Amino acid sequence: MPAEESETDRGPASASPTGPTLSYARAAGLHHTPDPLRLNSSVALLVNQDSGEVLVRKNDQAVLPIASLTKLMTALVVAEAKQPMDETLTITEEDVDTERHSRSRLRVGTTLTREEALRLALMSSENRAAHALGRAYPGGLEKMVAAMNAKAAQLGMKNTVYVDPTGLSNRNQSTARDVAVLVSHVGRDEQLAQFSTTPSHVADLGKRTLQYNNSNRLVRSHRAGWDIEVQKTGYIVEAGRCLTMLTKVGGQNLIMVLLDADTNGARLADAERMRRWLVAQWGLPDPAVAEAKDDDKPVRKVAARKKADDEDRKKDKAVAKKDGGTKTAAAKKDGGKKTTAGKKDRRDDADKSEVASAKGKKKDAKSEASAGKKGSKTQLAADRKKDGKKEDTRKDGRVRQTFASGKDEQKS
């Protein structure tokens, strides 16, 4: 991930080696000017763009260096020149900062379109891109600077002067009032407004690409709750940390200008302080808190879904366990039923066998009885027949038994 591009990244060389170590505003004692909001910036202005009402002011008429806020005028003049945005520009030695030795990620020989150069100059305050735009302006750099001053006069920026398209010179000077006028006009150009507030961008540089981030942290952070339409940051030692924005609060279009803050964090804190003051004055909900809550909603939803999923899994396990127990119990119960049924079946079979056996025995008994009766009848018939024969024998006079009986009796 490439390093974030901003004025602070260009290192201590942002000041001239032989130049001052104190900003013009501090040298003039403006930093000690009291204000109700206790702002860190030496100069501040908050104005309603639609009505022109000034809501906050602090040294807003002081003429001071404005550093890279200059690039807003550079962009406005380039846009009005109507040059082809897809035309290729080449970074040359002329674009290298030899006064402050500020760093740049655009090496000499890098090619990029006018559109890319314009975007990088606005969103990341890229100095070589801004200087290349000036060189490529019809008539060259000198004509470019003349056009910038002419436009300032046309807009009524009476206390403004430009000497280069980058803002690296401390002779690029203006007032908070004039800067607010410039911001208002830049906001009317949709493309410039979009370029200035692009959070991050992958620049096509011919044979390579580079990712750039916006120099304004309020643009990059959704949790800050800002609705920013135009923005520009700036820094050189003589100007201090500068920031201007066209933003919307409570449905109102507001222009903020902050010059000569101690640090990057201080200028952002001043902007936040002015917004909170305004919100309190108008009785509005804190947009930063509302935005933070909105940003947390997806996280809360994910957490809620995860919790619900965990609960569902627990329920599924409980149901599975219950079903397993029920099935086991049912199996045991069925097994018991089957065992009982088996025993009952065996008892029934035994009973049936016994009944069958009893029936068989009864039948056999009946058969035997029947056979016995039959045998008795047969025997009886035989006996009767025999007796008949005896009778016949006696009748015929041939009875032998009588003689036999008589002989036996004699022997005994």
Automatic annotation (TrEMBL):
GO terms for molecular function: serine-type D-Ala-D-Ala carboxypeptidase activity. Residues 306-354, 382-399 have a biased composition (Basic and acidic residues). This is Peptidase S11 D-alanyl-D-alanine carboxypeptidase A N-terminal domain-containing protein. GO terms for biological process: cell wall organization; peptidoglycan biosynthetic process; proteolysis; regulation of cell shape. Substrate binds at residue 232. Gene3D superfamilies: DD-peptidase/beta-lactamase superfamily (3.40.710.10). The active site is at 68 (acyl-ester intermediate), 71 (proton acceptor), 125. The keyword Ribonucleoprotein does not apply. The keyword Nucleotide-binding does not apply. InterPro entries: Beta-lactam/transpept-like, Peptidase_S11, Peptidase_S11_N. Residues 1-22, 289-412 are annotated as: Disordered. Belongs to the peptidase S11 family. Keywords: Cell shape, Cell wall biogenesis/degradation, Hydrolase, Peptidoglycan synthesis, Signal. Residues 35-263 form the Peptidase S11 D-alanyl-D-alanine carboxypeptidase A N-terminal domain. It comes from Ramlibacter montanisoli.
